[in-house]
Amino acid sequence: MATWILNALFASGTNDALETKHIKVVDGKIAELANGSASPDTAGCEIIDATGKLISLGFIDMHVHLREPGFEHKETIASGTRSAAKGGFTTIACMPNTRPVTDTPDTVKFILDKAETEGVVNVLPYAAITKNELGRELTDFAALKEAGAIGFTDDGVGVQNAQMMKDAMTLAKSLDMPVIAHCEDDSLVVGAAVTEGAFSRKHGLKGIPNESEAIHVGRDILLSEATGVHYHVCHVSTEQSIRLIKLGKSIGVNVTAEVCPHHLVLSDEDIPDSMDANWKMNPPLRTPRDVEACIKALEEGTIDIIVTDHAPHSAEEKAKGMERAPFGIVGFETAFPLLYTKFVKTGRWTLEFLLRRMTSDPARVFRLASGKLEPGAPADLVLLDLENEREVNPETFLTQGRNTPFAGWKLYGWPALTMVNGQVVWTEENGITQG
Ligand code: DOR
Ligand code: ZN
Ligand code: ZN
């Protein structure tokens, strides 16, 4: 069965000139891109009328928490992938801080099987660097790769021991696999919930210093230089980390980096005095100076990609308040509208730039088959409504999590339809249409 997506708007060049295109999808792949002036033969084909909507490759999110197995009260593979689809994401890479930790081939296979039977988008699992993410003993990298893991990370915690990280990188390099790191030196952060900055000072709270992130970034760039491994830095949030990544790149180290929407649009000065834990995540919201450094680093390519770090928690857990609640906010269903509204509508970024950092750049960094809007590529696509302003309402989220600081924000750029491997999985009109 073939499908024609007709009259879609297409951001073709760096000047954001919008062209009209018709796109034919056959057997889960993009088969043809026709100019808007053409009248394609649609006899016997399914038709999707995309008039007035922008078409893009589906977003790729290389850092998410799906919580299954073990924390199904926060999220499941079913609910998390539905939330991703609603946010326009077609491929997501899930972190191994599950219960059990994703540190055996069986758990990797469990996630892949569940994603196949219950998920609605492509799911790529990461496996842990160390058993149980305890930092003591490496996992079986070869067996985990064989089972389908796409990289190694202890996200949620930093690998504290430098020799352990070096051994991990040496082994990952021998298997041509990347090491992805949550950078946090535990000796510099004990029991703090927010960054060291205006908010922590005002409320007499202990702060998480910028160096706790940057010290690991610097260490790991040196270890990546020594081992040659592809080293990817998670959720960069500080000016100091950026300085080090820039230096690493300039001398040819195989280092890449990601940043989250919340670190681009919020600083610690935005946290309400009510100490609402929906503003608590790790790394924390940093100072306005760090925010501007992150934006610039993404613009100039020191930071390569945007990820959400979608981290759902239950309402009860988040109700414990700023100091006791777990770190993390949900991200799928607000990511594109936030960035489109804050950076593209304001004229700071082109649409093409934002889309690239959420689609082809993650595909390039992680060598994925998707990430190209051309014949032969997987038909992972999203239609976006750039015209209508809508308010963020957590009650309408498909994620089980309601933990967002963006409730009530008025945004543009809402997804209207998401297609994964040629199947429409979600539409604005009908919700989830698959699975
Ligand atoms: O905010 C965060 N949430 N940061 C992390 O590193 C872990 C994550 C989680 O698992 O909730
Ligand atoms: Zn992390
Ligand atoms: Zn994370």
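^ zinc ion complex. The chain has two domains: 3-55+378-432, 58-365. The chain has a mean pLDDT of 97.
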